[in-house]
Amino acid sequence: MQALLTVDQLAEHLQKSAASIRSDATRNPQSLPPICRLPNTKRLLWRVEDVEQWIARYVAGAEFSNTTEQPQPEKRRRGRPTKTESVAKQRMRINARE
């Protein structure tokens, strides 16, 4: 059987408060190791090996890590175009028709 960590144990392991762990579990789950959900329970539990692998991914200069590469963050989409960009695009359309 694999060892499981409770919220308090994970908080101690990650040097965060238990309240922060509980908050992150609902609001920002990607900032924590994968949660182990047992059937018919609401307890937050983590497998020790998952926590260790998750931490190993964030060690600076960890060439020895055998985990998969970290996913690249998605490129943020730009918001609404500026007025200058809109006018320039409109002029290009008009010039293309002529």
Task: Describe the protein's architecture and organization.
The chain has 98 residues and is mostly helical. The protein has a domain at 4-57: Arc Repressor Mutant, subunit A (Orthogonal Bundle). 44% of the residues lie in helices and 4% in strands. It has 4 helices and 2 strands. Helix 1 (7-14) crosses helix 2.
Strand proportion, as a percent range, falls in under 5%
Q: Helicity range of the residues?
A: 40-55%
Number of separate helices: 4
Distance between the termini: 75 Å
Which topology of the domain at 4-57 does CATH recognise? Answer: Arc Repressor Mutant, subunit A
N-to-C SSE string, H for helix and E for strand: EHHEHH
CATH architecture classification name of the domain at 4-57: Orthogonal Bundle
Task: Point out poorly predicted stretches.
Answer: none
How many beta-strand segments?
A: 2
Which structural category fits the helices and strands?
A: mainly alpha
Largest sheet: 2 strands, antiparallel
- What is the CATH C-level name of the domain at 4-57? Mainly Alpha
Coarse shape: elongated
- Radius of gyration, CA atoms, in whole angstroms: 23 Å
Strand order of the largest sheet: 1-2
Whole-number mean pLDDT = 85
